[in-house]
Specification:
Layout (H helix, E strand, L loop, with lengths): L7 E5 L4 H13 L4 E4 L7 H6 L8 E4 L2 E4 L1 H11 L10 H27 L4 H21 L12 H5 L1 H14 L10 H12 L1 H6 L3 H19 L1
Parallel strand pairs: 1-2
Antiparallel strand pairs: 1-3, 3-4
Helix pairs in contact: 1-3, 1-7, 4-5, 4-7, 7-8, 7-10
The structure holds glutathione.
Length: about 230
């Protein structure tokens, strides 16, 4: 547990999958923290001071020491507060968890975003959806139990909140299909179990307002590209 002497805060933005990862990790550990809402359209001096390299949320601040990049932050949280481990202790399993989390960011999320932004380049959109889809198939084959962590959620499950909640939402906004129950039955079942997990359920943002928000952003992207 964080003690009374410790100051723990999270600079974030509601609706960010990367921020949601940290909220899940902190809840799993039972750590109290202050949530500092960032306006990404008008970034605060605090964000620019604490994350000058990427200028992005989340930034986790522990006793005035800032840490950026969601996967790095989760590892820090896991090493600092030992209860309810998030990463496996076995070195090989730990390496695999890091590997698959990186696959989620580099080979699934990154091409997915590129596909979303390729509003009037059908070829680029197809190529990026294909890249994301291939990596999703590899991840589907990796899923052997209820969660990636077995009976309990772990590092890869938390990283994959992006797949469970954000991909279905944003693909609907952008009008394409990447992640469907027919194409990825195991991952789809996992996503339902994961989103129903008592901790995750309470931290994933409400779908409807986020859909409306992303749709407005997407529509303005489309209009700007015409
Ligand atoms: N790789 C970063 C990604 C963080 C990220 O993309 N954050 C977005 C919010 S979802 C952001 O701050 N965007 C602001 C910007 O790009 O200017 C992580 O894992 O923390």
């Amino acid at each position: 547990m964080a003690t009374n002497q410790e100051e723990v805060s999270l600079i974030g933005a509601v609706g960010s999958p990367f921020v949601c990862r940290i909220q899940i990790a902190l809840k799993l550990k039972g750590i109290e923290y202050k949530f500092v809402q960032e306006d990404l359209a008008n970034k605060s001096d605090l964000l620019l001071k604490y994350n000058p390299v990427h200028k992005k949320v989340p930034v986790f601040v522990h006793n005035e020491k800032p840490i950026s990049e969601s996967l790095v932050i989760i590892e820090y949280i896991d090493e600092t507060w030992k209860q309810n481990p998030i990463l496996p202790s076995d070195p090989y399993k730990k390496a695999l968890a890091r590997f698959w989390s990186k696959v989620i960011d580099d080979k699934i999320a990154a091409p997915f975003f590129r596909a979303v932004f390729a509003v009037n380049d059908e070829k680029a959109r197809e190529k990026n959806i294909e890249e994301s889809s291939e990596a999703l198939h590899f991840l589907e084959n990796e899923l052997k139990e209820k969660f990636f962590g077995g009976e309990e959620i772990d590092f890869v499950d938390i990283a994959a909140v992006f797949i469970a909640f954000w991909i279905p939402l944003v693909q609907e906004v952008a009008g394409f299909e990447l992640f469907t129950p027919e194409k990825f039955p195991k991952l789809y079942n996992w996503s339902q179990e994961f989103l129903n997990h008592s901790i995750v359920k309470e931290l994933v943002p409400p779908r409807e307002p986020l859909f409306v928000y992303f749709k407005a952003k997407y529509d303005s992207l489309v209009s700007a590209s015409i």
